[in-house]
Each structure stands twice: as C-alpha cells, then as structure tokens.
Write a structure and sequence with these properties.
Layout lengths: L4 H30 L1 H12 L14
C-alpha cells in the first residue's frame, strides 16, 4: 500500500515537532536540575545589591 505525499509530509512534520519538544524538555530539565546551584547564586547576587547614594545638598529657597 502506497502512502500519499500529504500523509508522508504530516509524518515528517509530526516527527520534527516531537524532536523539538523533546529538546525543549531536555533543556528545561538541564536548567532546573543541573545548573540550579549556579542559578541560585546569580539570583542571590542580583537581588541583594547595596548601592550607597550621597544626597545632593543645596540651598533651600
């Protein structure tokens, strides 16, 4: 039984979509599980930054 071109095309599209979804899930797992400590360190550094500002002094009118 021959498979028509449309069915073959949708098969390829489905295969590529499944591969991309698998890559996306693998990347999310990598970011969540493998680099968690590094990400937590960077977030803590960004959140707890202290900046001392010297107020401008001048005459009061």
């Amino acid at each position: 039984m021959a498979v028509d071109a449309g069915q073959r095309r949708w098969s390829w599209v489905g295969s590529i979509a499944l591969a991309l979804l698998t890559l996306l899930l693998a990347r999310v797992w990598f970011l969540q599980a493998v680099t968690k400590e590094e990400t937590d360190r960077v977030i803590a550094k960004v959140q707890s930054r202290t900046v001392k500002l010297v107020p401008e002094r001048g005459r009061i009118f």
